[in-house]
Amino acid sequence: MKTPAKIIRTDKWQLNPTPDQKVLLGETVKVYRHACRYLVGIIYTHWSELGELTADQLTPAVEKLMHKTRSRPDIKYSQFNKTFYKLPSYLRRAAIAFSAGQVSSFVTRYREWQSGNRKRKDAKPPKLNADTGCYPSLYKGQCYKLHGYEQVEIKVFNGSDWVWAAVQITGLRDRHLCATNKMMSPSLVVKQRGCYLSVPFTCKPEKRKPEGNVTAVDLGINTTATIVV
To answer: Which of 49, 128, 144, 206 is deepest in the core (most CB within 10 A)?
Structure first.
């Protein structure tokens, strides 16, 4: 019997921030998007080398270009650290992964366009869009801390530093209650109407037991027989 495939399902956890917290959450998304735009330019400039790397190799390779450390004082794009002061490392790496995906997608689509693989003969070439409506992925421990399922602490940008904000959770579904479901990194979504966490779960369906199957047969008079398992 085949092992059931893992399925990804996403729940929306509604947040109820105070007016001040909503401003901070919005500022956090704004900073993250700004970082992504910055990184798209860096990654595209060096894509001839970066495009050959695996996902695990790409992130440290990009960091060597723009993230200054004690052991790496000289970097090519020193402005990044100044512009995004104290940006949490996991947010930085999430931004790198997202930006690399944007560049990779553009390069693939542009090559297809160049080769003549187009929906229409007069189709315009694709553009590299660095200004996308992306939302930051939050990593447990460094970017968010759950306190039961009624409150979550989220690391937010207050204009000068990254601080923790305890935000109330007011609505969520029940996928977190299933022991076989594994919670993945949520994304912080901030919109005009409200804020919420987009929480993906890896769901593993239970194995079917052959002895537990029930077969029903409906012997129709005017129709063919119908079998249901």
So the answer is: 144
